[in-house]
Amino acid sequence: MKQVEKYPYRIIHPAMVVLVSTIDSKKIPNACTVAWSMPVSVNPPLVAIALQKRHKSTKNIEETEEFVINVPGKELLETARVCGSVSGWEVNKFEKYNITSEPSKVVNAPRISGALAYLECKLRARYEGGDHYIMVGEIKFAEANEKYFSDMWNEDAELIFHFGGDVYGKTVKY
Ligand SMILES: Cc1cc2nc3c(=O)[nH]c(=O)nc-3n(C[C@H](O)[C@H](O)[C@H](O)COP(=O)(O)O)c2cc1C
Known about the structure:
Elements: E1 15-16, E2 18-23, E3 29-34, E4 37-41, E5 46-52, H1 56-64, E6 66-71, H2 77-83, H3 93-96, E7 101-102, E8 111-112, E9 117-129, E10 132-144, E11 149-150, E12 152-153, E13 161-164, E14 167-169
Bound molecules: flavin mononucleotide.
């Protein structure tokens, strides 16, 4: 064993990559790649994402109190790369990178077309987390592609896992 001084949090990666879509108060959409997400309550159904305080997505969620967790498959890997390296403070990522969106069912933030599943959330709480805020959302509507998900993901679903840096991969069942 050796002491890990650089990126110790990567010890608890790989983490599943999601795309968090939001809108701002002027209805301009944004999408941000997030590896730090987790369920936090079954009833009520709550999920949390850790978002850097300076992100445009963070500001959007503070303004509109909602967000969508889009679960991308491998075909959206390039979308995950750009949404994780360019900020909505600089560009409209949907326009610049031709990301197709569609209306969500119960929130105003759009969905990213072609994702394998969606969690539409309303902001329930925001906690301090160092240089991040922990945004807790209540799931108001959840939908998944039945080809890949039935109570749990099957192995045909090519979910994206982030190892660190530009390294991505998949997981398989034992
Ligand atoms: C694979 C990957 C995972 C990421 N995970 C997170 C995360 O969990 N939390 C976070 O705040 N930023 C994360 N980022 C960084 C943001 O996606 C990135 O800074 C993005 O440009 C912020 O966009 P915004 O300013 O439009 O919200 C991740 C980036 C990548 C490429």
